[in-house]
Design brief:
Layout lengths: L8 H4 L2 H13 L4 H12 L6 H9 L3 H19 L2 E11 L25 H14 L3 E6 L8 H13 L9 E5 L5 H9 L5 E2 L7 H7 L8 H5 L1 H7 L5 E4 L7 H19 L5 E3 L20 H14 L4 E4 L5 H10 L3 E3 L29 H10 L3 E3 L3 H4 L4 H10 L3 H18 L3 H15 L5 H15 L8
Parallel strand pairs: 1-2, 1-8, 1-9, 2-3, 4-5, 5-6, 6-7, 7-8
Helix pairs in contact: 2-4, 2-12, 3-5, 4-12, 4-13, 5-13, 6-7, 13-14, 15-19, 18-19, 18-20
The structure holds S-adenosylmethionine.
Length: 471
Amino acid sequence: MYNVNSMKAEEFISHEEVLESLKYADENRDNVKLIDEILAKAKERKGLNHREASVLLACDIPEKVNEMYSLAEQIKKDFYGNRIVMFAPLYLSNYCVNGCVYCPYHLKNKHIPRRKLTQEEVAREVTALQDMGHKRLAIESGEDPVNNPIEYILECIDTIYNTKHKNGAIRRVNVNIAATTVDNYRKLKEAGIGTYILFQETYHKKSYEALHPTGPKHDYAYHTEAMDRAMEGGIDDVGLGVLFGLELYRYEYCALLMHAEHLEAVFGVGPHTISVPRIKHADDIDPSAFDNAISDEIFCKIAALIRIAVPYTGMIISTRESEAVREQIIRLGVSQISGGSRTSVGGYCENERPHDTEQFDVSDQRTLDEVVNWLMRIGYIPSFCTACYREGRTGDRFMTLLKSGQISNCCYPNALMTLKEYLMDYATQDTRSIGEALIEKELDNISNENVRNICRDNLCKIQDGLRDFRF
Ligand code: SAM
């Protein structure tokens, strides 16, 4: 039944294979010899398969878990250095015809005012986001073929790319909208999107159907096969995710890796990113109603083991998590975080946080400047880089570069140059002085002399008012 190459959801995410893998993991959770072998394989930095990775997740031996954490930290440093890419979500519409029981946008929720941004409002939100310093957005929308058809989403993308305010520009729009057709994915690709993101929510079919009782999202196969259609439509950067808290985390972790293996096997390129959202309180949603909540400790272990199992896949964490959890999990493997986020439709132009239309409560409520300042103080380079996809480095071309280690000759200087733009245009005085010192120090770490000289030159040009340099 299990077939990684199959195009049928129930075959590439075979329930039996997940259960057998979890059984194998349970049987071997104290098998130190096997665990050492798996860790040795992981040290080669070529990843692990879902069975091997599930054994590590099941293992509770403290010194082995510590080894997993150290390895995750090391892999993170090797592939991503100390750069953290910044982004913000932009909510376009909360009209939705689905019945997702964990989401306040569900059709039956009559408490929240339904709202959809007009193009003028999109431009205003984008201007507000540009004034914060953002260059990369993830657009979010409920599913509603009448209120939010693909034409509406495409129009919004166009407005976003064409809104220019002072030195601001949104240079990459990632898209998180419901599963759709190959034709629509092709249109999104033509509109110039970065990553197509779709959270699986849960890979467990029975639970999936119960958690999505009504609406088009009820169809497990259609949802689970969406990334195959996206790839067919020409989108080669796709982002997976599980909403942790809905089902047993070990099941989700194993199936998530099976999904990544499937994409790699069929299309020759795994997921570009993996997101790790946890269920949060929201209007009409009580997270304690979902009894599979995971502790911070397990959450960190999952992140570390994603880092080890798929070293080339970026990992994203949102403001659903607090500052403390974000600090821990960034160290263990996260490469991209949001900052200053509003999860309500129109939230960036409203001064007060409107709790009634927020998709979920935001734990990290700091401004983007506070997050940037904090990241630098704890040893990271906040990066506003969007160069890869603009230079055509997507899909397998991106992965080949990453695997060869060459990406550091692009990402590192790009991070410094985009940080410099941020410091010049948007930072507070304190953030600017920390940042200028950081850039000076980090410049010396660019090993290629030619790249270092060009980067230094471009930093001077940015100081003089020019913008948008990239390798
Ligand atoms: N509507 C699109 C879909 O169905 O895929 C995507 C956009 S939705 C605004 C983005 C994600 O928010 C969902 O995929 C879900 O995982 C997450 N989400 C929904 N309710 C949540 C909650 N109460 N707490 C945390 N995340 C939630």
